[in-house]
Fold this protein.
Amino acid sequence: MHYEIYVLKDAVPYSKNFLEINNFKYKIIDNEKEIPDDGVRKIIYKVNKGKFLNPCPGTPKYVCCGYYVLAPVENCPFSCTYCILNAYFKTRNITVYVNIDDMLDELDSIKGKNIKRIGTGEFSDSFAIPETRLYLEPLLDFFSKNQDITLELKTKSNYIPEPFFTNKYKNIVFSWSLNSFTVSSMEELNTASIDERIIAAKKINQSGYRVSFHFDPIIYYDGWEEEYSKTIEKIFKNIQHNDIVWISLGTLRFLPELKQIATELYPDTKIFNNEFIRALDGKKRYFRKRRVHIYKKMVDVIKSFSPSVLIYLCMENEDVWYDVFSLEMNTKKLKELMDERV
Amino acid sequence: MKTFWNDIQLKEIALNSIVFSKDYLLIFNSEPTPPYPIFFFDGYNNYPVFYFFNKNEFEQCQFIKAIVFENKNALLEFVLSIKGVANLRFVDKLLILNFLKDSKDAKFFDEDNLSKYLPILNLPDIVLTQLNENKMSPDLALKLLYLNQDEIIQFANFTIAYKLSISLQKEVFDYLITEIKVNKKSFKEILSEITNDSGLLTKVDILYKIRKSLMPEYTKTLEIYNTLKNSLSLPKKIHLVETPYFETKTMKIEIFFKSLDELKKCLQDLNINLEKKKDVWEQIFNVI
């Protein structure tokens, strides 16, 4: 997909070479207000004056895995109806931060600080735009020199950049966000199909990388159980069980304002026509008993293929954890569990 | 100088204020004795009556009875010099923005991303009044545009009659839209269902009905829980409180007391209750 590129004046020195090597057309601007507000998504190159790396914002009163989020890109070219980014960012434009040296300095500063897991898939898709190449090489260089920190790259695409095949990075985990076939085709617009994602996962797994999968958000509808089971079956038919670092589960949850935003952007979506309660963090969630029911079914199906795979719940409360796994879980314990896993 | 105030219907006049309506804009800065100083914009044309370039000049020209800016920037500057942005009511801001929409000042005035709310100006006055009195949220007002004018008025009357808070208005609206879109019911049908046609239901009854429809699993659990809670027959000064929407299993006991003796008595009563109603307590834990 082609997007118009706007480069803020102070970002030019950082990105000029990249833009010219790739023969990208771009417009230099003084101010973001110069960008036409015509509803068409654009890419903006700018200097990040804040931080690149932050602990996952988590959500109060819910258990978080405690990983760190690296955000060289904000916003995503895919159009998932449920995506929280629709409510987080006022604009649909994608921001690419170009001061990569500052990002590396930040990464350098965390050495020895007990940060074991970093991911880039929180505020964007890790591979969905060509600008990934702007920072990929220095990032891989950092992780090859710092093998005690693992980078999780999360995507809904089937694109894997070439450098991963020419060199092997033991501390890189490739991760795909998965869903049922129906949800994927109806609600995850412009993304790779579930089959394409699993084939990409198989390819990278066969070249020696570990992978992970995220069923998030799991959406409840008539026939969900059978359809999600099919996706799970497909994973285990294609991927070496021992190479699956973890599988996360999270049911649909959203900021209340997302419903309006999403239904305006995607009038055909049906995912908000369901029973939701206002949870302790102010987000809308399925009723707790329903969530427990969903997780138990998912866990049973996954365990039927691989009893030993690590399954965790993303942003769930301690009572749900207990009802699903008979485990007393909290953020500290989950962080330790997952740090040990990498 | 052309005067035309005799042709204008004055909807509202207040001292030292600016009054915006959907049809015209009035500004006056002194005791409003007729004829009024008027800036008139009919939505299509400015009527050039007199020109002035700053507020002082205007104040010195006491003979001016009616005036219109040709230049929207100057008008905005004048409006804001009399009445700061912070003092403008929500609908007033929209009216100014609407007035300015083709000028470059529209962007300046749109710092709060107000332009997305401009369609609100098409809503009936009853809704605009609620907005200006902060009795309805702009986001809900925007959503009301899904309904036709009659339905909007019925909805507004309903929220006023039942004194619904902003969050409850939203809940009722979500229910209406779900029923319209998913269950293909008409607006009239739904309203008559929730008010039971008799109009005798209380606000609590109505909201319960709505919640039951929007959250069947939760309300079913709540009903069982409340039945069990009632059958505990807890002493008056002891309350059992659940986590909202049973989002966790945690519950709390609230004890109201004024003295040590009273506290001891409450705890004693609670202990007795725990023994006597053990089965019910266990059922409660199972239900949630």
Q: What stands out?
A: Residues 1-43, 45-59, 61-70 of chain B have pLDDT under 50 and may be disordered. Strands of chain B lie at 18-20, 25-27, 238-242, 251-255.
